[in-house]
Automatic annotation (TrEMBL):
It comes from the Bacteria. One of its GO terms (molecular function) is kinase activity. Keywords: Coiled coil, Kinase, Membrane, Transferase, Transmembrane, Transmembrane helix. This is Putative Signal transduction histidine kinase. The chain crosses the membrane at residues 43-65.
């Protein structure tokens, strides 16, 4: 129970005790003027009834305000949930776009790497041919030089 509830219960109990202690005065009949006529009624009970009626009106108003606030809170909660769902969908859409963009970029890089690899393999094959040709030419040149040296040595002997 909140502080306000306890305070209201205490005040109601004090009012009930006051009415019980002064019941004879509350029920004493007096002449009441209503503006255009006069009636005989107990002033205390009339005032007590009017106070109770006023309390009920205020209680009804408080209930109405509380109910309106709860309904407004529920409406706002639904709006927030809808906005959260839209934000989640937008975020997943952005993630999907990012993933597709990354995949496309990685595919381009892979294609470029394959193209560079093929170019490098072609150059290496060409260099191997050139090297083999140079080795053959060098070997032929060395063979010719060795053969010439053998001929010279054979002529000198």
């Amino acid at each position: 129970m909140g502080f306000r509830s306890i305070l209201l219960i205490v005040l109601f109990a004090l009012l009930a005790a006051f009415a019980a202690l002064n019941w004879a005065a509350f029920t004493a009949s007096t002449s009441l003027t209503l503006g255009f006529t006069s009636v005989q009624a107990p002033l205390g009970l009339v005032m007590l009834a009017l106070s109770a009626l006023l309390a009920l009106v205020f209680l009804g108003f408080a209930f109405y305000v509380r109910t309106s606030a709860l309904l407004e809170g529920r409406r706002q909660m639904k709006e927030l949930q809808a906005q959260r769902e839209r934000a989640d969908k937008a975020e997943s859409s952005r993630i999907t776009q990012l993933q597709q963009s990354l995949e496309a970029g990685l595919n381009r890089v892979a294609e470029q790497m394959n193209a560079h690899k093929n170019e490098l393999l072609a150059r290496m094959a060409q260099l191997e041919q050139t090297q083999a040709q140079l080795i053959t030419e060098t070997a032929n040149g060395l063979s010719a030089a060795v053969g010439e040296l053998e001929d010279r040595m054979a002529r000198r002997n």
